[in-house]
Amino acid sequence: MIWIVVILGIVAGVAFIRLAPSDAARWHKPIGDAENADGTGWSARVVPATPGLLSDLHQAMVKLPRTELLAGGVSEGRLTYITRSKIIGFPDYTTIEQDGDQIKLYARLRFGKSDMGVNGKRLDAVLEDVRGNRING
After folding, report:
1. Would you tell me which of 85, 120, 123, 137 could form a disulfide with 38, CB atoms 3.0–4.6 Å apart?
2. Domain locations in the chain as residue ranges
3. 3-state DSSP call for residue 116?
4. What is the pLDDT of residues 72-95, one digit of tens each?
5. pLDDT tens across 3-27, in order?
6. Domain boundaries 23-136, corresponding CATH code
7. How far apart are CA 99 and CA 13, in angstroms?
């Protein structure tokens, strides 16, 4: 009997993580001061803005598996995405915005305390993808 309760608890937890709504107003906010850094559950990158870079970053983000635009747009100058982990579907949120002559990228988790470096790796991969396309394209 206790195993049934445990299993139901796990199933309920996974269902909550997968089905919890994402409030765009909570995640789609100005980044503010940022620097290239990684913290517990978050990562940030700052790069010089160049013509078309925000659009290129958007294209790189939407190519990522299990990633969709949550709010914003290139014309707005700020975009926020949700990326879910493969198995359980943990949501991570990435905001990219142009702030004057800089583009800021900020990725963070929603549940838990540690992202095991996933958000920083995602930001680096997106930036590398865009750099590669600009050099080879």
Report:
1. 120
2. 23-136
3. coil
4. 999 999 999 999 988 888 899 999
5. 888 887 777 776 666 777 889 999 9
6. 3.30.310.80
7. 38
